[in-house]
Specification:
With 716 residues, this protein is α+β, with helices and mostly antiparallel strands. 36% of the residues lie in helices and 24% in strands. It is globular and about 95 Å long.
Length: 716
Amino acid sequence: MDSSRDDSSSDERGNSTDTNNNQDRRNYHRHTNQQIQRLEAYFKECPHPDDLQRRQLGEELNLKPKQIKFWFQNKRTQAKSHNERESNAVLRAENMRMRRENATMEDALKNVVCGPCGGRGFGREEKQRNIQKLRAENAFLKSEFERFSNFLAQRGGHSMPSVGAFTYPHGPSTSNNRRASYGTSSNHLPQPSCSLRGPYARGNISINQPHQLRKEMPLQHFPPLSQMEKLVMFETAEKAVAEVMNLIQMEELWKKSSIDDRLVIDPTNYEKCFAKISHFKGPSGRSESSKEVVVVQTDARILVDMFLDTEKWARLFPTIVNEAKNIRVLDSMDNGRQTLARVIYEQMHILSPLVPPREFIILRSCQQMEENVWMIADVSCNLPNVAFESMAPICTKHPSGVLIESLPNGCSKVTWIEHVEVTDKTRPHRLYRDLFLYGGLGYGARRWTVTLEKMCERLYLSSISDFPNNDYAGVVQTIEGRRSVMKLGERMLKDFAWMIKMEKKLDFSQQSETNSSGVTIAMRLNNEAGQPPGLILCAGSSLCLPLPPPQVYDFLRNLNIRHQWDVLCNGNPVTEVARFVTGTDKKNNVNFIETSSGGDNNSNLMILQDGSIDALGGMVVYAPMGLETAAIASAGQVDPSTIPILPSGFIISRDGRPSSAEDPDGGSSTLLTVAFQILVCDPNHSAAFNVEESAATVNNVISSTVQRIKAMLNCD
């Protein structure tokens, strides 16, 4: 009996164990190969998906969002461990190499001989005596140099240049013995030298001087480059041109993004091809790469000239390039193909005060590859002793550029490559996170080509010698007046885009709402032509609207309802008195709007407005002006750059979410930035200015405008 009980109890234990094993097997889920491949591809593009992306990915792979979440957590942990093991292996190998080199040098020092005579080398004590002797001779020569220099100055001659002014054979040395380096080194970022400066106006950047206070050095006063440094720069330029050409010609270096099907660089193939030239990704950086092709109605030679001239470059991309300036223009070099090279400072900013600017010092080179084909390549260039102060991301431009091909009809085919490594000091604001981290629509090639196409259309239409059929001349009677109004609208866009970065922010930001950033306020003192002199207060707010960008753009351009949200109208209707089309899309135009004054038809206020829309979003920018100023602008007898305007307006952007079959434009939401500029006092009354009171006033104006727009769009 006991035996039978033992047998039965053992059977029960066996059955219980089998049951537990079966339960464990039922609870365990192994992903299929197809699921793993899709998850791996998505992880390379977006290692931190949000809830919506996890839900969409789960629906696609028939997995629960929690399974997706745990897989990505485990994958990030696995990737981190793998990277640490690789880094440790590299460090161990480097340590062993340095130990071997150290041992080799110690052995060589024991048997060192004098090169000229072949005799025994100096001992340590003898070396110290020789060094002291050389220092004494150097001090004597310096004193003699100063004595002769003073003697010449006293006799009315020219003083001799200081010792530090002579060019060293291996390039200019610095206080910490660092040389200029080029290639893919990262660039920290400069602050503007003065809050009074406007677009194109950067003249100084901070120079890092050890053990001294920082001081500013004008960009044009950098020390001259030695011949060796020039050769190194031209060699870097040649390599950048070759890499960009390979990126254009070799299709295997590209793959479709698993998020939105755009072309991005395949890191594996890139590293195989360019491992000896540059690194694909730093330990803490993220890579942004893209490729686009567009045909524009501008001659190829004109485009090349505009890309090499920094002022024309900034004018060609007014909503992207805030500032651009030549630091050094290098002599051309002809090694089979003529290479033009220059070192350029460039600051870029888009969309909102919430988006930090990006700044680069780049080496830009131009080569004519064959007849009617030009290559322009950019690569980051790190100058010694330049310490840029900014909270913006640290950005490195890997070889990027454009291939410009002349077409028979006066147009040009442009192939654009962007390849940048970004190390964010802070994560992008939640409103713009999808746009920059996942969607690739931030500073990618798509934005550059869309802007290029739009601006080439604008420049062509502004240059024609007659009124097109789509124009409504109205109060503008001459073709000179038309050109003046179009140039004034172009400058208005540039000034507004420059203002929107709001570098000198005040501490008056309001608390953020669910779909809004609150109100950001900045202040500057203006004394330059083109804007009214005095203290100017800028206020901006960014928000998300559950509507597509074209619908928001049409609403803001609708003159029939403008008086319901625009404080400039004082509740009175407005009338369009002139309109000039600036692109193939008739919605892109600059126009004059006249406001009415209550019961009569007389008005003392005109509004100049410039609006445009494209595949990524749009802008509506406007500035009020008196009748006399409007008459001067429409007459075309005065330089438009001297007409004082203070633009305000809206920037419309896609939200950056991936497109779908139902919504090919990518997401159904709009990121809207509203920004106003107000002249609060002239320079003579700045002492009586109350900052907090004016900040509260402008905050109320922009907040009420936003609320009215949201209510009219049923987005409360």
